[in-house]
Structure formats: C-alpha cells, structure tokens
Amino acid sequence: MSATDPLSLLDDVVARARRAGADAADAVLIDAVSLSGAWRLGKLERLERSEGGDVGLRVLIGRRQAMVSSSDRSAAALDELVERAVAMARTVPEDPYAGLAEPGQLATGFPELDCCDPVEPAADTLVDMARRAEDCARAVPGVTNSEGADAGWGRSQVSVVASNGFSHAYGRTSASLSAAVLAGDAVTGMERDYDYSVAVHFADLARPEDIGPEAGRRTVRRLGARKMRSCKVPVVYDPRVARGLIGSLAGAINGASVARGTSFLKNMLGQRVFAPGVRVVDDPLRRRGLRSHPCDGEGLPARPLAVIDDGILTSWLLDLRSARQLGMSSTGHASRGTSSPPSPSPSNLALEAGPVTAAELIGDIPEGLYVTDLFGQGVNMVTGDYSRGAAGFWIEDGEIAFPVSEITIAGHMTAMFGALIPANDLDLRHGIDSPTVRIDGMTVAGR
C-alpha cells in the first residue's frame, strides 16, 4: 500500500475529478488490518491475518452522481478511477436529491472518543484466549462437542475529503471473543449455544474464563426441551435477542425506507409508538462505543438523538439525500463505504433501562415464554408483521420452569412496541443494545 498520507491522496483525487469535469466530488479511503485465531477440540484450527485498503470516489455533474472504487493507489489507477467515475456520471439519470453538504453544515470540531486501541495483540495472545475459552466451555458437565472458540482483533483508518472543504480522518478498533459448544447426543437430542464478548479496546473484553463456562451453561440448560401448545401469553426477551427488536425499530425509522414508503412506521412521526416513559437513544459520541464516530459519513456533526422520547417517535434517521427527499434536515446519520454513496444508519442505538428488575418483569406471569434464541428473518418491514422461530424456557408462576423449542412467536411490530416493558439490566456493550423486555399478548405457536 502507498505510504502517501491518506488525506493528501484523497485531496489529490478530488482535485483530479474537478479538473476532469465534476462539479463536486468526495472521496473516502479505508485501510484495515485484522487478526483472528480459532481453537477447536484442543487444537489450533485457524490463524489468519489480513490487510487491505480501498479508495472510493463519488462525483457529481449537476444532479447526476456516480461512484467508483479501487484497491490500487498507483497514479495510473487513480487516473482511471477519475475517468470512469466522471464518464459514468455523464450518462446516469439525474437524482434530484443527490449532493454534498453545504460548507456551513460541516462539522468544525471532532471529539476524542477513545475508539482506537493503540496496542495490537500478538497472535499467540489471541490463540491462547481462544484455547482457554474452549477448554472452559468443554469442561462444563454435559457438554459433548464443540464448534470451537474464536478470538479476533481489527483496526481501520477512515479518511474522507470532499470538494466542499471537508477533510478528516479517524481510526477505530474492535476485539472479540466467542465460544460455541454442543450438549446431548443423537439419541436424546442435541442442543447448541454460545457466548461472546465484543469491545473497542482489547483490554475491555470479557475473560475466557467467563465466556467459556457461560457458553457451556447456556448449552446444557437447553437439554430436554419440550414443545408447547399454541397459546397467547406474555413473551420475555433475553437482552441478547431483545436487541433484534431495536434493530427492527432502526430499520423502520431509516429515512431512506421512509422516503420510499417501505416502513410500517412511515406515518407515525410525532405519534406514540411505545408506552409512556420509554426512551430509545442513538449516541454516536459514546466513549469507546462500538459504533461511535466523531462525525457522520458526509462530514456533518454527530450528536446524541432520542428517536423515541416518552414513547413518542421524534425523528427519523436521516442522511442528506433522504432528508432532502422528505423536506427535512439531516440528523447526521450518514454512513458510507468505498463502493456506494452515503445512506442512513444508526450508531450506538439503545433502549434505555426501565425501573424494574428482570425477575420482577417475570414474577407475575402465570404462564409465558422466556426467549433466548430466535431463528429466521420473519419481520416484514413494510407491513410490520412479525413471525420468528424461537427457543427458550417456559415460565410458570413467575419462575423459569423448563426449556422449550420448535415454537414460533408472532405479532405485529406496532402492537409489540406499544406493549413493550423494559427491565433495568441494560448493558451497553454492542452497537445496538436492549435490556430484558416483556411483551404481553403475543401468539406462541407450538404443537
């Protein structure tokens, strides 16, 4: 890869595009390195390291827009990149909503978010962590096989330059550790489960001696799962699967989907979607947040935003294009890569904790379902219909009673959001987070 300063290289690419006939242009460069190791059944299964980088150029001629990317940074390759992008922009249909930010909209300060760990772990360290996690998982009584344990680390450097005067670069890192094992046998039935940890800084990962045993315990407790009769009962989502509900909310309030009319919440802005007191906040400025960033992909300031406040839907997630299409202002949620134009995306999105414990949330349920695993993609983002395969535990008289599997849970997302009750066990470890939640009146389909 070229040793040229990324911002200088991009500035040169944008200048070339302007000289070639572009009215406006921006360019993004992403350099990335990753290291991962896997350990399975007491042996090293994989050790990999990769490095790579891509340059993406977007040019605009009037309202015509084109984007081209390349991994080659030689002068000849960059000349070709510019030539192709400008030629494409001359021939594509006009997009009335395309365009860069106005200079007055651009971020002028970039907060330090501590999102780039300066220390790269050694390959032996990752392998040792994976080994310890799998050894601990396999040591749990009842575990009969293993899918292995993985440890990984990665760093990326993101640089963006635009003809409107924007120029900024920042780095970010991530680390992960996971283990997955099996319990039971082919005669009595087999179950699988896992545990994992992710963090921006390697030192913030959970210990292998915590990940491995938890993966084993989660797996063994699923043995002997029963099928349940079909009924309507309260459903309680473990935080690990409750995050999917917040992910569905993010998709439904994505400005591009709203502008296309393909969101079941498209007519709900300013209206009650959740119960009073419920808040969902997107915070791109969280220190060491997994999806934190000092500005958005179009150079606009990043800021926390309560998309749900006291149960009311207050805002869409907007980039410049979707904002123009809806006659609104961008919320600074543009995300981008090197091969496609910006589009709206959440950062660190979290359903805020409620006032009750998870035990209290379950305690008054005479019969219900505690979900720990979901299968399939049964969420219709246009209609809001929801139907997914599930596994977990049956609740009887306010207590977890026995494992269940081969069931389906169904409802409608608007009714589910309106009935959702959050517990107080929120843990901000992922890009999308949720505490335990309870939703009454869902349909459970079993035998």
Characteristic terms for this protein:
447 residues, alpha+beta, 3 domains, PmbA/TldD fold, 6-stranded antiparallel beta sheet, 5-stranded mixed barrel, globular, Double Stranded RNA Binding Domain
Q: Gist?
A:
The chain is an alpha+beta fold. It has helices at 6-19, 75-91, 123-138, 208-220, 239-252, 255-260, 320-326, 358-363, 413-419, and strands at 24-40, 43-61, 64-70, 143-162, 167-185, 189-199, 231-237, 280-282, 305-309, 312-313, 334-335, 343-344, 349-351, 367-375, 385-396, 399-412, 421-422, 432-433, 437-445.
Written overview of the protein:
The protein is α+β, with helices and mostly antiparallel strands and 447 residues long. The chain has three domains: 81 residues, Double Stranded RNA Binding Domain; 98 residues, PmbA/TldD superfamily (PmbA/TldD fold), CATH 3.30.2290; 223 residues, no CATH class. The chain contains nine helices and 19 strands. Strands 3-2-1-4-5-6 form a six-stranded antiparallel β-sheet. Helix 1 crosses helix 2 and helix 3 runs parallel beside helix 4. The radius of gyration is 24 Å and the shape is globular. The model has no long low-confidence stretch (mean pLDDT 95).
Which sequence of SSEs, written as H and E, runs from N to C?
Answer: HEEEHHEEEHEHHEEEHEEEHEEEHEEE
Number of spatially distinct domains: 3
Question: Which structural category fits the helices and strands?
Answer: alpha+beta
Number of extended strands: 19
What's the gyration radius in Å? 24 Å
Helix content percent band: 10-25%
Instruction: State the strand order across the main sheet.
Output: 3-2-1-4-5-6
Unreliable stretches covering 5 or more consecutive residues: none
Sheet with the most strands?
Answer: 6 strands, antiparallel
Shape: globular
Estimated share of beta-strand residues: 35-45%
What is the rounded distance between the termini? Answer: 59 Å
Number of helices: 9
Look at the structure and give the mean pLDDT.
95
